[in-house]
Write a structure and sequence with these properties.
Elements lengths: L2 H6 L15 H20 L3 E2 L5 E3 H4 L15 E3 L5 E4 L4 H10 L8 E10 L11 E10 L4 H17 L7 E7 H10 L4 H11 L2 H13 L2 E3 L5 E3 L5 H11 L5 H4 L5 H13 L6 H19 L7 E3 L13 E12 L5 E12 L5 H4 L5 E7 H10 L12 E3 L7 H13 L4 E3 L6 H10 L4 E4 L2 H6 L1 E6 H8 L5 H7 L3 E5 L3 H10 L3
Parallel strand pairs: 1-5, 7-10, 14-15, 14-16
Antiparallel strand pairs: 2-4, 3-4, 5-6, 6-13, 7-11, 8-9, 11-12, 12-13, 16-17, 17-18
Helix pairs in contact: 2-5, 5-12, 6-12, 7-8, 11-12
Length: about 500
């Protein structure tokens, strides 16, 4: 076989479209972030659950926000029995299958939380990936609006546990029943309603003009791809847009009794006569009930409030819907203002478990988009962006004495010090370069001379780097050996601990 043929057989090192590698600093920061969220979920009494990465395709259903057929918006494959399976597109559909499968054994209501990756076979774009993390909490088995109110309070507490101060976030609440009433008033036929809801759901990302295009003839994005619109008459589109941008004054929401209900109904009746269906009024009543419940627990309208533009794009929502929005603004690399918007959302999905059971099993839940929230926290300065210190590195000066270096390494680990022994085959110069690349705070050195004296040398690499900027020639460096000192071997642990203590 020729060299040319061998080269042609080599695979190309490349990432699949819409995927990304996540490196150590971000992984550690995300772990710290999700641990704070987990503590809130636990405090609310939710229990952890883990479901498989893929399910039978028919179990996932046809609920994706941008696709109506199950094999279009998900990654699918066939098993040995020629049954179709798909990677989960969210954590809610697998939960519905789990509850239906274990219904009799579970306490009702059943409360669970789950952290894990999900996959969507959609067009990737800036900040839009085909694999991403979600962190969900759900209550299954009750239609009590108190469960929805808890989701809103849980979302607010999670934001504050992450260091996002009041005024920099808001939990926005609406109802699909209210939206259905508005679409009735706007004379929107049933076959167009899902398209309309998905158009409104893009308000946070596309703004009012983008939604207007999607309600009309359609919209072409920056790449040239065209999304067909709902083709609504101008009157219908205007009514929807007016509803979306209705601003309920904070003092009205905070008023006693059912003022919000009366205010909203009177507003709708002025604009759209006949908007008084039982379903619409039920939606308004439940929004007001949430307001009363959260206000009674000390959550004001600065944290949780009604917003008519909240829709949620997934088809399975049946009632109340809510979103966690970040309201602060930062600048991008070009100095342009950036607002992160929604970092999580959820709502009531009373029909999802019933697909398996045949009887209605009400449920409500909230999901945090982990990657988007991480990016927002980083921009807000709540995520440590500097390089973390790596492990202490024990250099191997004599490979015949590897067992001795391994013993020294283990003694440091036993003292709770993150430590690694150099396991390559290079000499000291290369080992020092390796320690620098690992961001080691210090290295432990024991050559033949140190061993004979029963000592080790500790070299503080952080202090050494600072001092090296002040030394003008190699002679001074060799004579001074900045930040390098010797200690008896039995004092090695205390010496390393003293170096680490400088940089906590």
């Amino acid at each position: 076989m020729s060299k040319k043929t061998k080269k042609a057989l080599r695979p190309k090192a490349r990432l699949p479209k819409g995927m990304r590698d996540v490196e150590a600093a971000e992984l550690r920061a995300v772990a710290e972030m999700t641990e704070k969220i987990r503590a809130v979920y636990e405090r609310y009494g939710f229990e952890p659950l883990d479901t498989p990465a893929f399910e039978y395709t028919d179990a996932l259903g046809k609920f994706l926000p941008d696709q109506d057929r199950p094999n279009e918006g998900v990654f699918s494959f066939q098993d040995e029995d020629e049954q179709w399976l798909s990677l989960r597109y969210d954590l809610t559909a697998p939960l519905a299958r789990y509850v239906a499968q274990n219904y009799d054994a579970l306490p009702k209501p059943f409360r669970r939380y789950q952290l894990g990756p999900v996959w969507r076979n959609e067009k990737p774009g800036p900040g839009r990936f085909r694999q991403f993390m979600q962190f969900d909490a759900d209550t299954v088995g009750t239609d009590n609006v108190a469960a929805d109110a808890e989701m809103c309070m849980l979302a607010a507490d999670a934001m504050e546990a992450l260091g996002i101060k009041r005024g920099d976030y808001v939990i926005r609440v609406n109802s699909r029943k209210v939206l259905d009433g508005v679409m009735d008033a706007a004379d929107i036929p049933p076959e167009k309603r899902l398209t309309v809801l998905r158009a409104i759901d893009k308000y946070d990302r596309l703004g009012i003009e983008g939604v207007r295009q999607l309600l009309g003839s359609g919209r072409k994005d920056e790449s040239g791809d065209f999304t067909p619109g709902a083709e609504l008459p101008e009157r219908s589109a205007n009514l929807l847009l007016d509803f979306m941008t209705t601003d309920i004054p904070a003092e009205t929401e905070a008023a006693e009794g059912d003022v919000l209900v009366k205010h909203q109904v009177s507003l709708m009746e002025r604009e759209w006569p006949g908007l008084d269906t039982p379903e619409f009024l039920e939606g308004i009543e439940k929004i007001d009930r949430i307001r009363q419940l959260v206000a009674g627990c000390g959550f004001g309208t600065d944290r949780i409030r009604f917003d008519p533009s909240v829709v949620r794009g997934l088809e399975y929502y049946t009632g109340l819907v809510f979103e966690a929005e970040l309201t602060f603004q930062v600048e991008d690399e070009d100095g342009r203002p950036v607002r992160f918007g929604s970092v999580g959302g959820g709502g009531r999905y009373d029909g999802l478990v019933s697909r398996f059971k045949g009887a209605e099993v009400p449920a409500t839940g909230f999901s945090i988009g982990v990657s988007r929230l991480y990016a927002a926290l980083k921009a807000l300065g709540k995520i440590e962006t500097g390089a973390k210190h790596g492990p202490v590195v024990v250099l191997v000066m004599d490979h015949d004495r590897t067992a001795d270096y391994a013993r020294m390494t283990q003694s440091l680990r036993a003292a709770g010090i993150r430590t690694e022994m150099y396991v390559g085959t290079a000499g000291m110069k290369a080992q020092m370069k390796y320690a620098d690349k690992r961001a080691a705070p210090c290295v432990v050195i024991q050559g033949e001379d140190e061993r004979a004296r029963g000592e080790v040398q500790i070299k503080d690499l952080i202090e050494g780097a600072k001092l090296s900027e002040q030394i003008e020639d190699n002679v001074s460096w060799r004579e001074g050996r900045p930040a390098q000192f010797s200690v008896p071997e039995d004092e090695m642990i205390e010496a390393v601990q003293s170096v680490l203590a400088r940089y906590r």
